[in-house]
Specification:
The structure holds 2 protein chains of 2 kinds. Chain A is built from 6 helices and 5 strands; from the N terminus they run H-E-E-H-E-H-H-H-E-E-H. In chain A, the strands form 2 sheets. Chain A has a 3-stranded antiparallel β-sheet. Helices cover about 40% and strands about 10% of the residues of chain A. The longest helix of chain B has about 35 residues. Chain B has one domain. Chain B contains 18 helices and 4 strands. By secondary structure, chain B is mainly α. The chains are: A mainly alpha, B mainly alpha.
Chain lengths: ~190, ~575
C-alpha cells in the first residue's frame, strides 16, 4: 500500500509536468503560427475589427441578413442552446412568434418559404451560418430597404455561399457576418 | 442532403481504415515488439527510475487493481482541492470564482472516471489553470487507466494459465507516452490550424457590425479538445462543447473530432485479435458492435433529417431538417451521427443539443449508453462487452448442457455471479435514482432546497422525465453528455450523480478484471469437438441477443415513460 502510494505520488507529479505543462505549451507555441495566432481569427472593415470569423453575431436591423435565434443572444462570453424539447408547448409558441415576426418584416414571403433554421436556435447560440435558403428568403426585404435590385443581392448570396467540403461532404451554408460586411460595401 | 449523408459514410470508413494500423501498433507496443516510438524508451526508463517503478514486476489481478485504485485516489484528492481554490491560483484572466464543494466533488469524480459530466460551463466554472492541471490531465490519465485495465485482461487471455496480468505502472505509462500523447499532438495541431484557439489570452470585448458590445471567451483549448476525443472523455472547453464554433470550427474539424473519438475504441478490437492471436474472435466482436451501431445510427439520422412534426405543423419548410439545437455547418445528418457515436462510445461530447433531438433519437442515444459496449469507451468498451460474453457463454452452456468454457477455462458460479452483479447494477442505479428524482419533482416540488425540484426541469411532461433518465444513464455509463436543460448544478444532482459515477466506473472495471484473473488461474482445457467456439458467427449472434434481451428487460419501462410516450404524443 505504502509503496503503491509513493509510486502514485511521484508518477502523478511527473505526468502533470508532461501532460498539463509541456503538452499545452507546445500546442500554444505551434498555435502562434496559425492564422490569428491562436487568439481566434478576426474580421475587419476599414481597419476596424468588427468580429471573430468563427463566431456569429446578432442582426436585427432590416438592412442586414439575419442569423439564427440564439439562446445566449450572441454574447460569446458564454454559449448554450435552448435545450427545448420537441414537444414543449411554450417552445412551440416561441417558434410560432418568430415566424410571425419574420412575416411582418418580410411581407412578400409566405410561411412555407421560411426554412426552419431561421426560426430555431442553434446548439451553441453562436452559429455564424444560415442555410442558403435562409439567405435567399431575406433578399426581397433587404433589396427594398437598401434600394438595390434583388439580382445584385442574389449574386452576392451566391458569392458568399460556402459549398460543401471539397464539394462532396456536408451542407452548403452562408456566413452571415461576411455576407453583411460585403453588403455594407456595395456601391448604392 | 446527399453531401451530408456522404460525409457521414466517408467519416466512418476513414475511421475504420485508420483504426486498423493503429490496432496493429497498439498490439506491438504492449507485446514489446519494435515500433517507431521506441525512441521514447530512455524517457520512460528515466520516469521508471524517478518514480521507483520496476516495469518487470508481475502483478496478479488484486495487485493490479490496487495499484489502479491507489493512483485514482491520489488524483481525486489532488483535483478536488485545486477546484476548490482555483480562484486563488494563477492563469485565471477572466476572474472566475472557486467551485462550491458539491460542484467540485461532482467535477473531480466526473473527470476521474472518464465521464465528464459537466455541471458547470467552461467559460465561467473553471480557470485556465484547472482546465489544464485538472481537466486535461485527468482526460489523459483516466483514458490510460481504462486502456491499462483492458491490456491486463488481454494478458490473462494471452497465456494458457497465469497469475500475471502484467505491470500496471508500465502499461499505464506506455499508454500515455506511446498512444495518447502522439495522437493528441497530431490532432491538436490540426485543430489549431483550423481555428481552435491555443493562446492564454482571456476574454475579448468587441463591437459587432451592428454596433452591439459583446465578449468572446477563448483560451488554450486545442490541446484539450484533442484529448477530450482521443481519450473518449467528452468534457468541453466551452459550455456548448463541440457545437461551439471555436471548439469545432468547420466541417473538417467535425469529421476529425468524430474520427478521434472513435479510433481507439475500434483500434483496440483489432489489437485484441492480434495480441491474443485470435483474429477471427476480434472480427466477430467488431461485426456485432458495428451492427449495433448501425441499428442506432440509421433511425436517428432519418428522424433528424425528416425534421420535427411539431415544427412542420407550424407551416415552415424543413428541408434543412430538425435544426433546433443544431449548427448549420454540420447539418442534421452529421449531428445525428455524432449523437450516436458519442453515446455508444462513452465520449459524451456533443455537436448538437441532445435535449432538442427528436423523441426517438433521444431514445437511441440513451440505448447507446445503456448498452455501453458498441465499441464503448477507451478500453472499458471491451470490458463491458466481456461481461456480455461471459453471460452469453453461460447461457449457451445451459442450452447445450455442458459446463460453460471461455478460452479454455471453465466459467463457474463465481464468475457468472460477478457478471450478473455488474449487469444488474446499472439497471438498479439508473432506474432507482431516476425514480427518486422523479418522486421529488412530482411530490415534493417546493421542498426548501436552494434549487427546488420544481425548477429542475427545462421541459414539462414526458420530456422532463427523459431529462432525468438521461442524466443518470449518462452518469452510470460514464458518458457525460446530457439533456442539458436539466438544472443540475445543485447539491441533489451533484452528489447523487457523483456516487452513480463512482459505482458506474469502478465496479464494471473491477468485475471483468476479477473474472479474467480468476479464469486465468484455472487449469487450461484444450479445445475438443464439443467446445463452444466463441469466435464463430453463431456465438456473435448469441452475444448480440444477450445484449438486446438484457437491455430491453432492464430499460424498457423507463424508456416507455419518457421518449416513447413523447413520440406518441407528438403526432
Amino acid at each position: 500500500m505504502k509503496k503503491n502510494l509513493l509510486i502514485s505520488l511521484k508518477l502523478t507529479v511527473a505526468l502533470i509536468i508532461v501532460l498539463a505543462v509541456l503538452y499545452p505549451l507546445f500546442i500554444a507555441a505551434v498555435g502562434r503560427l496559425t492564422p490569428g495566432g491562436g487568439r481566434g481569427e478576426t474580421l475587419s472593415t476599414n481597419g476596424k475589427v468588427v468580429g471573430y470569423a468563427r463566431i456569429g453575431q446578432k442582426f436585427t436591423d432590416d438592412k442586414y441578413f439575419w442569423g439564427r435565434p440564439s439562446a445566449v443572444d450572441y454574447n460569446a462570453a458564454g454559449s448554450a442552446g435552448s435545450n427545448k424539447g420537441p414537444s414543449n408547448p411554450d417552445y412551440l409558441a416561441v417558434v410560432a412568434a418568430r415566424i410571425d415576426t419574420f412575416l411582418v418584416h418580410n411581407p412578400t414571403v409566405t410561411k412555407e418559404q421560411i426554412p426552419a433554421d431561421l426560426v430555431t436556435a442553434s446548439g451553441s447560440g453562436l452559429d455564424p451560418h444560415i442555410s442558403p435558403q435562409a439567405a435567399r428568403v431575406q433578399i426581397a426585404r433587404i433589396a427594398h430597404v437598401r434600394g438595390v435590385t434583388p439580382q445584385v443581392l442574389e449574386s452576392l448570396v451566391d458569392t458568399y455561399t460556402e459549398s460543401p467540403m471539397l464539394g462532396l461532404f456536408g451542407p452548403a451554408r452562408v456566413h452571415v457576418l461576411r455576407l453583411n460586411i460585403a453588403l455594407d460595401q456595395l456601391k448604392p | 442532403m446527399n453531401t451530408e449523408i456522404l460525409g457521414v459514410i466517408v467519416t466512418f470508413l476513414i475511421t475504420v481504415l485508420l483504426a486498423y494500423p493503429l490496432g496493429v501498433y497498439i498490439a506491438r507496443v504492449f507485446s514489446g515488439e519494435k515500433t517507431f516510438s521506441d525512441f521514447l524508451l530512455p524517457v520512460e526508463r528515466f520516469l521508471y527510475r524517478v518514480c521507483g517503478i520496476n516495469p518487470q514486476e508481475p502483478m496478479n489481478w488484486k495487485q493490479f487493481l490496487k495499484a489502479m485504485l491507489t493512483i485514482n485516489l491520489v488524483w481525486f484528492v489532488y483535483g478536488f482541492f485545486l477546484l476548490l481554490f482555483q480562484d486563488r491560483l494563477p492563469l485565471n484572466p477572466d476572474g472566475n470564482p472557486a467551485q462550491t464543494p458539491d460542484l467540485a466533488f461532482n467535477t473531480i469524480i466526473s473527470f476521474l472516471v472518464n465521464c465528464d459530466l459537466q455541471h458547470y460551463s467552461g467559460e465561467s466554472g473553471v480557470t485556465y489553470f484547472t482546465q489544464l492541471f485538472v481537466i486535461t490531465f485527468l482526460q489523459f490519465v483516466s483514458a490510460a487507466t481504462g486502456i491499462a485495465m483492458l491490456i491486463g485482461v488481454l494478458n490473462s487471455l494471452r497465456a494458457k494459465t497465469t497469475d500475471n496480468l502484467g505491470n500496471f505502472w508500465e502499461i499505464f505509462l506506455k499508454t500515455n507516452t506511446r498512444i495518447l500523447l502522439p495522437l493528441c499532438i497530431v490532432g491538436a495541431v490540426l485543430l489549431a490550424f483550423n481555428g481552435a484557439p491555443t493562446s492564454f489570452d482571456g476574454k475579448d470585448t468587441i463591437t459587432t457590425l451592428q454596433g452591439d458590445t459583446v465578449q468572446v471567451s477563448r483560451g488554450p483549448a486545442a490541446g484539450m479538445i484533442a484529448i477530450k476525443h482521443i481519450g473518449t472523455n467528452g468534457g468541453g472547453w466551452f459550455g456548448a462543447n463541440s457545437a461551439h464554433p471555436l471548439e469545432n470550427p468547420t466541417y473538417f474539424t467535425n469529421m476529425l473530432e468524430l474520427l478521434m473519438q472513435m479510433i481507439i475504441p475500434i483500434a483496440v478490437i483489432f489489437a485484441l485479435g492480434l495480441y491474443i492471436r485470435q483474429k477471427k474472435f476480434a472480427y466477430v466482436i467488431f461485426g456485432v458492435m458495428t451492427v449495433g451501431m448501425l441499428l442506432l445510427v440509421i433511425p436517428t439520422m432519418v428522424y433528424e433529417i425528416n425534421g420535427s412534426p411539431a415544427i412542420a405543423n407550424l407551416g415552415v419548410s424543413q428541408t434543412t431538417g430538425a435544426m433546433e439545437g443544431k449548427e448549420v455547418r454540420f447539418g442534421p445528418a452529421s449531428s445525428a451521427y455524432w449523437s450516436i457515436v458519442t453515446t455508444i462510445i462513452s465520449t459524451g461530447s456533443v455537436n448538437s443539443m441532445h435535449d432538442s433531438s427528436m423523441p426517438l433519437s433521444g431514445m437511441m442515444q440513451m440505448l447507446g449508453m445503456m448498452v455501453n459496449a458498441f465499441y464503448g469507451g477507451c478500453g472499458v468498451g471491451i470490458l463491458n462487452y466481456y461481461i456480455y460474453i461471459i453471460i452469453a457463454v453461460f447461457i449457451s452452456g445451459l442450452m447445450v448442457g455442458r459446463t460453460p468454457e471461455f478460452m479454455g477455462h471453465k466459467v463457474e458460479a463465481r464468475e457468472v455471479k460477478i457478471a450478473m452483479m455488474v449487469t444488474l447494477l446499472s439497471a438498479f442505479l439508473v432506474k432507482g435514482m431516476t425514480g427518486i428524482a422523479a418522486y421529488f419533482v412530482a411530490n415534493q416540488p417546493d421542498i426548501a432546497w436552494t434549487v427546488k425540484p420544481s425548477a429542475w426541469l427545462n421541459n414539462p411532461s414526458f420530456h422532463g422525465f427523459s431529462e432525468m433518465l438521461y442524466e443518470y444513464t449518462s452518469a452510470n455509463a460514464n458518458n457525460g453528455s446530457g439533456f442539458e436543460g436539466l438544472g443540475d448544478n445543485n447539491i441533489f444532482w451533484n452528489v447523487t450523480t457523483g456516487f452513480v459515477l463512482i459505482l458506474g466506473r469502478f465496479l464494471p472495471i473491477i468485475g471483468p478484471v476479477a473474472i479474467a484473473g480468476l479464469l486465468a488461474r484455472k487449469k487450461y482445457i484444450p479445445e475438443a469437438a464439443g467446445t463452444l467456439r466463441t469466435d464463430s458467427f453463431t456465438f456473435g449472434m448469441m452475444t448480440f441477443a444477450v445484449i438486446v434481451i438484457v437491455t430491453a428487460l432492464s430499460f424498457f419501462p423507463p424508456l416507455a415513460l419518457g421518449p416513447l410516450a413523447e413520440y406518441f404524443s407528438l403526432k
